[in-house]
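Why predict the complex rather than its parts? Because the way molecules touch one another can change local conformation, and only a joint prediction can capture that. The input here totals 297 residues.
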Amino acid sequence: MELLNVYQNNYLIVFVFLCLGVLLPVVALYLGKLLRPYKPSDAKYTTYESGIEPFHDSRVQFNVRYYIFALMFVIFDVETVFLYPWAVAYDKLGIFALVEMLIFVAMLLIGLVYAWKKKVLRWI
Amino acid sequence: MIFTGEFLAFMGLALVAIIGGVLLLNLNKVIHMVVALIFTFVAIAGIYVLLSAEFVAAVQILIYSGAITIIMLFGIMLTKHDDESEAKSGKWRKLFLFLGILGFAFAVYIGIYNFNVEQVPTKLHENNTLQIGEALYSKYIIPFELTSVLLLVALVGSIILAKNDKKKEADKE
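Output of the joint prediction:
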């Protein structure tokens, strides 16, 4: 099982990159905290709104419409996941797999057309 | 027990996954919870890599720490934030919870420790995606096509649900 070792050792590089990715913001933010002066006062902590006294909450509740975009993104993401092994194994599968994949894509196209007709995709 | 690199890697990943899950439950700010959840997802992807399931790991990263996280962020933006959950835990409640956790852990331990999985010699780490593609589009073709129907139903259903909400809001106004 020499190949398995090669496979696992390749992921050491991924691990190193992952650690770098996690550590970089942590170290950068911590260094910034160490280096910058810290002299808080009440005036500094007020929200700047062009001289107007801030009122109300800064957070607003989003419309449901944006949620549909997220849901559709997930569904087409899953479709992409199915396309990926198909594309890799395409040479070995032949014409039958092509037809299958066409059916699959057509099914999801129906969904897309439905969303289009229902005017979900309109961005206001 | 032998301390191989694989064992250490598994321990580290499992630790990150569990700590992520615990932080998800205990943190107060919702965005922090999502970050903890991403750590859990990535750690589970790492465990898939250890099991030579490269493609599943990639899908885990792509779908879970990508798409599902976005869905959750949208869900957070749709809800109200100012609600604060009050801690209402009596002594007995905590005791029963602890007993329940112990019982569950014991049951899982009993179930898993001598669980016999039939070992089939495979070479999953060689061209993992290619193997999955070949199996999926020749042997398991019917489930695959059913998946497309499932996705279609999910898409149409989500649109219908969200659209209904909008109509009700318009009626209210």
